[in-house]
Fold this protein.
Amino acid sequence: MIQAKGESARLAQRVARGFDDCFEGDVSSWIYALLRVGLAALCLIRGADWLRPWLPLDHHSWVHGFDLDWSSQASPYLKSPFLPGLVLGAAATHGLVWLRTLLAVLLLLGVRPRTSALALALTSYALLLSDRYHYFHHLHVLYLSVAWLALAPANDPFRLSPAFAALAARIRTQPAAELAWHASPIWPLQLLRALTMSIYLASGSAKLQSSWWSGDVLSQLAWLHSVRGSLWVHTAPLLGVTPIARGVCLFELSLPFLLAFRPTRRVAVLAGIAFHTLISSVMAVSTFGATMSLLLLAFWPKALREPACAEQRLQSGA
Amino acid sequence: MTSLPTALEKPPRWALVALLAVSALPPFVARALGSPVGDFAMFSRVGRYHLELAVVGAAGKEAVSLKELGPHLSRDARAILMPAAGSGFGQDQTDLLQSGLADIGQLLCELRPNASAANVRLGRGPIRSRELSWTEATTVCPRR
């Protein structure tokens, strides 16, 4: 009895130490800079149709001007907030849309990035939840990722303030502080990785049902022209709809595990990006592929400092 | 404007466990609660939906065309509601619609001030089937 208690205490201790290990260590700050700039740029690109003249994107077919801006034409208007009580009028919606855009620019430039990210996420969610019909999975993923940036370190040199300081020092012919990539704690990145893995697991597990597994859902999506394009037209008859449907499900379920283990991690990142490129070429998924590819890149960097417990184990020869 | 510090200290274990749960569990919680929002099911289900509107007035029950609602809807609401006059497609869209039937009834009451009640019926079913299962919401209109 006492022995069993001792064993379970030791097991609990090992689990706790393993958990701590996952969040120990450092990583180069370039990954945080990349995610900040990338996610802010995606917010700006997805939030309006500015790129229409140069780069036609899926959302340009329904977004004219700013996305989620006031668009009811006559009073009385339908008040159907997803969050009860969050009813925004025309003026508040318009103001929030402009605020969202300003905050995305500030985040892109790295001006008080953590505060900008938090405010941008809150503003974006207020707009999303004020009307239940505004909801899209890809917007939710984007806003969740932006919210995560509020936890991410903001010490990269690719921000406006250090760049200005370096420029000002150079003008005054003073030695400028070196713009360098610092070591940043890895724990915020681990949380983003967990979020990314959960999205794949959720998507894959939702497909574990007979209608998807038999290929019926994919056939119906093709019948509705939701899946289309020359790649689909040429590939579907060759491979068969059912094997493609099963392959997608298995890929989504296995990707989190391939990402979790160091030996397969980088191959999984590349495979994941290829997967999203293929999906984007046969379905109108807006910026979803770009957002997920960015999130996959969170798995690319290697830790600069190994977990303390691992070092101790190495030293003790364990 | 006070800003957050450039980097956070690593939180204690309990806070990390909470943050990890908040990062990874919401899709599964959403699915368990039957909410299409945040479950990331991603095209794993597809179906069709059809919407019927009516108001009850002095002359009895009167059907209302969905077109009449058009100018009073947001762009995204129009994209989901307008096809429902015939057949709209998409399971997430149907779930969103089903959770907001009472709000549509409220709008009908505002559009028809003399109505005593508004009735909204949503039919949903598989794409290649004629069978639909119906959900109905009746809103009692306030007396004016």
